[in-house]
Specification:
Largest sheet: 8 strands, mixed
Strand content: 15-25%
Number of strands: 12
CATH superfamily: Alpha/Beta hydrolase fold, catalytic domain
CATH class: Alpha Beta
Number of helices: 11
């Protein structure tokens, strides 16, 4: 399957923002769309495996959310904060790919927060929602880690550093490695994250979660650090359209830890929700 990278431009009160997305099945221009939103430090390419597993039934589109992948890192969020900016970016892509049509949306971690805000704010445009391992009440902090260098002189040096880090060589990170003019690094920058995203990432988003009116599949990694079983149960009680599926041996990145089971769960849910 030959994927294709495309770009679109948005013009807001903050200026021009160029966004990148990957169409994993460009031959199916009229096919059912699954829009995928990656987590922090991820990119559209994180969903290549899922796209292959769902082909040819679903046209999987991965968006490089602002500050990640090949998309711009704007220094100001549009009016309403970074969450509204993420949602507006996703809507701009939907308006280009499926004007006026509802689509299925999947979001992992940070992308999951953006996904359920998108579904709550634009109910006519999201017909099925999959949220991978994130909560609706995020009042704590991610585990502390040592700061990473901005650049490494060689790819071997970068790989050795990552192998010794708590994250290891996670595929989510590998998809964002790139050679810059001044050495090897990632396509995201934690300094930009701290300025632009962190202020809007933590909080109580229960109202947005409860407002989602389409069928919802909430996936939970049994070994996840990001969301507790109690929070998952609370979310299920808040939204009557929600069903929960737990992956006991998976951590926070279920699509990497249990790729075959993850893809089957997504496929089964999409099939069931499309027939609802």
């Amino acid at each position: 399957m030959a994927s294709q990278r495309h770009f679109l431009e948005r013009y807001t009160a903050d200026g021009r923002v160029k966004l990148s997305y990957v169409d994993f099945n460009p031959d199916r221009k009229q096919g059912e769309i699954l829009l995928c939103l990656h987590g922090r430090s991820g990119s559209a390419r994180n969903f290549a495996g899922l796209a292959k597993a769902l082909a040819p039934d679903w046209r999987v589109i991965g968006l490089d959310q602002r500050g990640h992948g090949w998309s711009d890192q704007p220094e100001a969020a549009q009016a309403g904060g970074i969450r509204n900016a993420f949602v507006a970016d996703a809507m701009a892509l939907l308006d280009q790919l499926a004007p006026g049509r509802p689509v299925a949306v999947l979001g992992h971690s940070m992308g999951g927060i953006n996904a359920y805000h998108l579904a709550a704010k634009h109910p006519a445009r999201v017909k099925a929602l999959i949220v991978e391992d994130i909560g609706a009440r995020l009042l704590g902090q991610a585990p502390a880690i040592e700061p990473w260098p901005l650049r490494w002189d060689s790819l071997a040096e970068m790989i050795a550093f990552m192998q010794a880090s708590p994250f290891g060589l996670a595929p989510l990170l590998l998809d964002s490695i790139v050679e810059h003019e001044d050495g090897w690094g990632f396509r995201f920058e934690d300094t930009w994250y701290e300025r632009q995203i962190r202020p809007g990432l933590h909080g109580d988003f229960s109202a947005a979660w409860a407002a989602v009116a389409c069928p919802v599949l909430l996936l939970h990694g049994g070994k996840s650090w990001a969301v507790s079983a109690d929070e998952i149960a609370r979310m299920a009680a808040l939204n009557p359209h929600c069903q929960v599926l737990r992956f006991p041996e998976a951590g926070h990145i279920i699509h990497d830890d249990a790729p075959a089971q993850f893809a089957q769960a997504v496929r089964d849910f999409l099939l069931a929700s499309s027939g609802a």
